[in-house]
Design a protein that fits this description.
By secondary structure, the protein is of the alpha+beta class. Strands 1-2-3-5-4 form a five-stranded antiparallel β-sheet, with helices on one face. It is globular. The two termini are 13 Å apart.
């Protein structure tokens, strides 16, 4: 299950059956550490291997850092899906949006000097599922699912 830019309003129902385990306001750099820690805790709770946990925490870290760097902050919601052995996140910001999502998903794309430009594309590769919506009116919302096991 991989989504990219979803024009379908049904994408917002992905976490309807999930339990929200945390909400983190993203305001300062230290909130990246809080987000990583809470996602790692949720992954551990669903029996995640260290590898799967590291992959998803890395993806979440990139998305959260983008919200802080490019939009000045946002909100991260973390969801447990125990029956599916998955953890989901929704990161929302109220920034100016991503002008060209397709370009932003390509490795090498960057808006920051010194960046390797593997952010969103890397986050997608490290997730079981990935969806992004962005507009100048509503900011950017990224949803991702991390699997707790390879099955």
């Amino acid at each position: 299950m991989h989504w990219t830019r979803c024009a379908n309003p049904a994408w917002s129902m992905v976490f309807d059956e999930a339990d929200r385990v945390a909400t983190i306001e993203l305001e300062k750099d230290r909130d990246v550490v809080r987000a990583r820690s809470r996602v790692a805790d949720a992954m551990k709770a669903c029996g995640s291997s260290d590898l799967m946990q590291t992959r998803f925490v890395t993806a979440v870290s990139e998305v959260v850092r983008n919200a802080l760097t490019h939009a000045g902050g946002g909100t991260l919601a973390i969801y447990a899906m125990p029956g599916q052995r998955q953890v989901g996140i929704e990161c929302r910001d109220a920034g100016r949006g991503i002008a060209d999502i397709d370009a932003a998903m390509v490795d090498g794309f960057t808006t920051r000097r010194g960046s390797m430009g593997r952010g969103l594309g890397g986050a997608k590769r490290l997730s079981k599922a990935f969806a992004i919506e962005s507009s100048s009116e509503n900011g950017t919302t990224v949803r991702m699912i991390g699997a707790c096991s390879l099955r």
